[in-house]
Write a structure and sequence with these properties.
The structure is a homotetramer. The model of chain A has no long low-confidence stretch (mean pLDDT about 95). Chain A is elongated, with a radius of gyration of 19 Å. Chain A folds into 2 domains: about 1-50, Arc Repressor Mutant, subunit A (Orthogonal Bundle), CATH 1.10.10.60; about 50-190, Tetracycline Repressor, domain 2. With about 200 residues, chain A is an all-alpha fold. Chain A has helices at about 1-25, 30-35, 50-75, 80-110, 120-140, 150-165, 175-190. The interface of A and B includes residues 23, 148, 157, 188 and 194 of A. The structure holds a DNA duplex (21 and 21 nucleotides).
Chain lengths: ~200, ~200, ~200, ~200
DNA sequence: CATGAATGAGAGTTCATTCAT
DNA sequence: GATGAATGAACTCTCATTCAT
């Protein structure tokens, strides 16, 4: 039945995702994916149209989940500071479930977005950006966040720090995503300078 | 004379660097570099042994300059907070002169470092890391920086934010590297939460 | 099944061998081999790792067969003159089955042996040389062969004559390998000067 | 004056000849020749039209000398056995002065002769062949050489042995060309089997 | 579903040759 | 005479993809 088929797809996408994340999309060959899956490269085409459609599926899945999570956060936390905390935490935590996709999105999105097929990447990115900007602007208006900071700049700093963390984050390591999020939030909110 | 030759090399490296930064090293073809330079692909080999030797030269130049700048900072600023400020500022400012190299280093170093020829990348990265860690640890010991933060984590946050900024930084834009550094330092040191 | 695959490999190796023998290894292009096989050059790499691995396989096959044949000769003929006759005959006869490989070995071995991968060529050559030298020395000791001849020199003369014959030998021609061997043995043993 | 120019040409041809002999014509690059001569590859074209014209000149010089030597032999020795001895000796001795050219002729003539420019190679080869065949036939007719041998076959055996010797002959070694010729003549005339 | 032979475009690189300086 | 930058064609090899079996 279709369930087995879906499982196989998911399994293959997992393998492909890991390799894309490790070696880059362009640098990973279809043969490497097939090798890792224990089949021949031609056989992959029974499951996917092309190498592109594999990244496509991987990225769509991740972005859908992320968007949903962000929307939930915004719906549940009217308070800007609580919302910011939740966005940061949710983002860091997604490294556990979607680490490969995050890495791929980080490393390849700019390049892929040039092609029509991946035009949605820019759209989703803009959507996600609006979530952050909304929270930051609201916080600034409410006097919760400092007024002397340029919100778009703050957003970029946060986004970069949060997502690039996949490069060194180890899901099996002792330092969990939650703790990393907590430390980052401390810095982000209070700074690293000791209080007098 | 050699000066002309050096100029031509530098010119070609500039073109190659721009393309490597934009499209990635593996994705950029030698023919594209040659096209951009207005010569044929084979002619590049009059100046460089290989595509690899081009990135090599680009990265070595950048890392040498950066290392020297960091050492100068450490030699001139005994005060941890002043040193941190200077390291951050120097790093952001290097985007103006070495933006392409930074982008290449960010995007390709992990991959390239696997090859013997690029083993030095890991070494230099470790050296640079020691600069930051030294400053942060000294600051923490002196009570200048909060004691409840894990220094290696703080280092990674800073490093990621500083270097990934090349992705959106525009050297011709209205927002200068210095101002970006200043804003980031405000966040990093005092946090984004408004003082009561 | 594997048999078909082996057949195809053998077929392609035959084509490659013929061209390598005719035009030389370096001068023969992969495209020429593919053209002669009626496929595209890239398709050859489905069967072989590289052009080098093609010669490798060709030479290994030939040398294995030749070594085995020489060993059989030495095992079956204790008499030096009979052994010499058999070695010469076996060698000439191998032109019928391994003409291309002989030509390649003659023309390329010295060059190829410089590369590590082909180091075995020198070893096998030395092994084959020992077969001939053993027979010649034994014959000289037994008084069957003239004592005033330098055995290493005699060996080289024989070796050169026997193997360079592939350059003009025509497997389809009226003069068979056996007859050529017989004529050469007459000269080699009795000389061309008429007996008084 | 022209003498200096001629000297330089000869010097460059010597270098080219050595490399062609060692590595093969196709495999030797113009740059290698230039490197060995201490100039840049482009500079070679002040002396020679092309790489081809270098081999051309090398081969022509050698073949002219050899033809003259053979004609002198035939003119001076009416006796077939003396003529044969002289041809063999002259040929072996030419390894001292023309070793590289002999090697090139051996290894490349068949290939080069396909091109119009090198059509003369086949002609000269035929001319040289006639010298040997004439002597052998005359000797057979006179009853000096055995009647049961096919002269064209004997010629090929001699030719191959004589010329392929360049592959192992060492002009600086202890074994001189003259002695090699003597040993070969012993075998060729009397055979290697001890007289009862 | 998978195999494996083949495609066809394009990759990095080499090299004989030219030519302005 | 020599330099050195450039040409242009050809080379080996890679790879996403197709398709008959």
């Amino acid at each position: 039945m279709g369930a087995v088929r879906q499982d196989r797809r998911a399994e293959l996408l997992g393998i492909a995702g890991r390799l894309f994340a490790e070696r880059g999309f362009a640098t990973t060959t279809v043969r490497e994916i097939a090798d890792a899956a224990g089949i021949l490269s031609g056989s992959l085409y029974h499951h996917f149209d092309s190498k592109e459609s594999m990244v496509d599926e991987i990225l769509r899945g991740f972005l859908d989940r992320l968007r949903a999570a962000y929307e939930r956060v915004l719906a549940e936390r009217p308070d800007p500071r609580a919302a910011l905390t939740a966005l940061v935490t949710v983002s860091f935590e997604s490294m556990d479930s979607d680490g490969d996709a995050i890495a791929i999105f980080q490393n390849e999105a700019a390049h892929l977005a040039q092609f029509e097929r991946f035009g949605y990447l820019a759209e989703v990115a803009a959507e996600l950006e609006r979530c952050w900007l909304g929270v930051l602007e609201r916080g600034q208006r409410d006097g919760v966040f400092r007024a002397d900071l340029r919100v778009p700049l703050v957003y970029r700093f946060i986004r970069d720090t949060v997502w690039v963390a996949v490069r060194w984050y180890d899901p099996e390591g002792t330092l969990g995503a939650e703790e990393i999020a907590a430390q980052y939030l401390t810095i982000l909110c209070q700074g690293i300078v000791a209080q007098r």
